[in-house]
Amino acid sequence: MFQQTPLHLSVRYRALSAVRLLISCGANVNAVDSSGMTPLHMAASILHQDIASSLISHGADVNMVGIYSHISTHTYKQVLKGQHRVVGVKLS
């Protein structure tokens, strides 16, 4: 579905331990699926701070723009309704 990587799927199902395991095994934290979403875009869209923070601390690009959404992860800061710490980890 949407040519998602195991990392995308782990984020989608909120499996933090799987996300951490995949990252430790070298998963690409900036992989883009066929809908233009990175794992970080997905984590921000489901408001999962721990996953988003883990991705950011392992090099996820907070400025990547989705193919269809035309929105960078930085912009998700506005969407996170008080959860701006997620993106703020890298921006501050």
From TrEMBL:
ANK repeat residues: 2-34, 35-67
Domain of life where this protein originates: Eukaryota
Keywords on record: ANK repeat, Repeat
Entries under InterPro entries matching the protein: Ankyrin_rpt, Ankyrin_rpt-contain_sf
Protein name: Uncharacterized protein
Species this protein is from: Poecilia latipinna
Lineage: Eukaryota, Metazoa, Chordata, Craniata, Vertebrata
